[in-house]
Specification:
Length: 363
């Protein structure tokens, strides 16, 4: 089989060693005469996988002891509900938001159904191509939290530093740049991410929550919506998404094997520089609308001189063994999502293809 370079925004490319290991042990796990997905989630075998996924997360991200690590079904989108329901369920009935693109808008809309939302920054006038200077953000004293989206997957913008918010916890959706670079976990009250970009299969979210934030969560929620209940049971209150967590454990072992967060960060810098350089040196043939300081290392967006050329470009990349380069339907253009598992060779192949395409197809 020849694998294509898969630039899809998510679900997306995963490390080949993780896929191959899972394939090799899929029908029979550890000599037990059954697959891991056929076993009780209380079995010794699955418990070890579950525990290791949590421990690897703690180790790779350097998560301090006063944070709980949860794996919850429902993806990042369920977190758009759980965060306001848990964190605005106590004495504080408002939160602060930065509205920086498509994903922040969705989280913002859900939070607004639960409490009052103060908008500290709205990127609308700049077409969501900019981020605020973190030092200019002044949180409201009565806010339960400030919500950020560290990387806007559709717009291709990524935060590079974090605001100072005093006693107000920062809650951050890191779905599309989770574990792609070191982050100071201690600056955040809650970090969450849908798994299907850098961590594993879709359908599960990783949630990292500080103990004092957890203690402040509402007690009045139904069981599945309550962080407290999931935390008390180490994400085993109900049957967890066992296959997803099993795959995440394999992906995390791979992250460790390539040097942890420093390792994957270097790869991301290398890959993204290859493509941004072609864009910036194309004399305007390719244009990236995002200012250099806000550019994402995970999702690179660009336009060609016409929609016809964009369609031709996407078609020809497919024939050349590269998939997923069509931009999101809401913004058009092209987009290359290059998460942790994208080999540098994939970025090189794309960069070479872009140069050749520009030379062959005059505007
Ligand atoms: C993909 C994505 C989501 C949605 O994740 P689901 O698991 O599909 O709910 C949320 N936020 C960001 C930034 C994303 O990239």
């Amino acid at each position: 089989m020849s694998r294509v370079y898969n630039f899809s925004a998510g679900p997306c490319t995963l490390p080949l060693p993780a896929l191959e290991e899972a394939a090799a042990e899929f029908v029979e796990y550890d000599g037990k005469g059954m697959s891991i997905i056929e076993m009780s989630h209380r079995s010794k075998e699955y418990s070890a996988v579950h525990e290791q996924a949590i421990q690897l997360t703690r180790k790779i991200m350097n998560v301090p002891d006063n944070y709980k690590i949860l794996f919850l079904g429902g993806g990042a989108t369920l977190q758009f509900s759980m965060i306001p329901m848990n964190l605005m369920g106590g004495s504080k009935k408002s939160c602060d938001f930065t509205v920086t693109g498509s994903w922040a808008k969705k989280a913002f809309a859900d939070a607004g159904k639960i409490g009052n939302v103060n908008v500290l920054f709205d990127g609308k006038d700049e077409n969501y191509m900019t981020l605020p200077d973190p030092s200019t953000l002044k949180v409201s004293s009565d806010a339960a939290y400030l919500h950020l989206t560290s990387n806007e997957t559709i717009g291709g913008i990524e935060w590079q530093s974090w605001p100072e918010t005093g006693a107000v916890p920062i809650v951050c959706d890191m779905s599309s740049d989770m574990m792609s670079r070191p982050v100071p976990v201690e600056k955040f009250g809650v970090i969450y991410a849908g798994a299907q970009k850098n961590l594993g299969p879709a359908g599960v979210a990783l949630v990292i929550i500080r103990d004092d934030v957890l203690a402040s969560c509402s007690d009045d929620l139904t069981a599945y919506l309550s962080y407290k209940i999931h935390a008390e049971k180490d994400s085993m209150y109900n049957t967890p998404p066992v296959f997803c967590i099993y795959m995440i454990q394999k992906v995390l072992k791979w992250v460790e094997s390539v040097g942890g967060l420093e390792g994957v960060q270097k790869l991301a810098e290398e890959r993204s520089a290859l493509v941004y350089d072609v864009i910036d040196q194309s004399g305007g043939y390719f244009s990236c609308p995002v200012q250099v300081e806000n550019r994402s290392k995970m999702n690179i967006v660009w336009r060609l001189p016409s929609e016809e050329l964009e369609a031709k470009f996407v078609k020809e990349t497919l024939a050349a063994g590269m998939s997923g380069l069509k931009g999101h339907r809401s913004v058009g253009g092209c987009r290359a999502s290059m998460y942790n598992a994208m080999p540098v060779e994939g970025a090189k192949a794309l960069a070479a293809f872009m140069k050749e395409f520009a030379a062959q197809n005059k505007a």
